[in-house]
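During the reporting period the student researcher (J.K.) took over the structure-prediction task from the postdoctoral fellow and processed the backlog of single-chain submissions. One of the processed entries is reproduced below for the supervisory committee.
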Amino acid sequence: MAHPSYMLIFALLISVFGAGWCLCDLSSIKVTQNGTGDFVQSRPEYEVTVSNDCVCSQERVRFESAGFQSVEAVDPKIFRRDGQSFLLNDGRPFSGFDTITFNYAWETQFAISPVQSQIACS
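J.K. obtained the following structure tokens:
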């Protein structure tokens, strides 16, 4: 049986290093966009991929996207205007290392930048 002091040291190391696994922040949310080559109502279509590059879930993920519009319907449960920003995934947890993808169509590509999220680590 392990000596109690070794068990205490082991428990402390696990708590210190385990907490470090979830030191995520807004920079863990990545956005990439690519043209699909398709057109909707004569406007180019873009595919947006949002990835959570953190082991922890993030929820209430919000984006800034000045002037965002689309002639192609975007599922509001995936990406929708909510006040002055846009809400991802209806505010629900966005799992670690997961991606969410949606398409939109407009004359030009819009800048889509994360501005807020809440880390949901357990």
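The committee noted the following: Residues 11-20 have pLDDT under 50 and may be disordered.
J.K. will present the remaining backlog at the next meeting.
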